[in-house]
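Worked Example 4.2. Consider the chain below.
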Amino acid sequence: GNVYTSFAMKRISLSREEIRDDLQLVLDGATQLLMRYRSLHIRPVMFTRTVLKWVPILSEYSEEYFWETLFSKRSSDNNEVKDILDLLATRCTASWSTLSTSLCQAWILKRVIADKLCRYSTSSFLKCLVHKAGQASSCDVPLIVRDSKKEENFVAIAQQPEAVAAFRLALDGANCWYQESDEKGMGRERNLLPDWMILMLLVGKQGKKHLDLITTMLIDRLPSNSWE
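Applying the procedure from the previous section yields the following structure tokens:
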């Protein structure tokens, strides 16, 4: 808390290069706090609240090391922990600047392009990609609202490789969503679109080439045999 206060005061008048040491301390603190939380088998409620409050604030200028910690899968994660991490991903993107969120989104799509999706949480990836898309999704709970102006184009998926990666992620999210809904017997929200569907719509809204692309990908997924 003291390190963050000092950093926040300095950043008002100094450049990023001049506060690099303090910035690194803040980022290390956010990463260590999250790593400690994820390592516990029993997580006290107060610790969960601390993580949900401070990690989004401290991690605004985060980089790959923090993103790996936030989005990676662990076999020990139960459904409760997964839900908390999804909420944390939402709160992070709510409090980060547009630039910080865009860098994280670009990294996510690179992970999907590199066929590394199995190492990460699909649902948390989706939270980060769709949160600032301008449409409410399930579990959309902001902590600090910034950059509320809606953008017409989703820059992260402007190019074909990124658009393909985003749509692959959406398809994987749809599959996980239906499986979890059946397993938990949970009712699907009537007034909120699931994140995977929002991402599909975002890809399609980028233009005719993107729409043709996702149409082709969907057709390729249809069964080749006659339907019964």
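Confidence is low (pLDDT under 50) at residues 1-14, 139-152. Residues 23 and 99 are 16 Å apart (CA to CA). Compare this with Example 4.1 before moving on.
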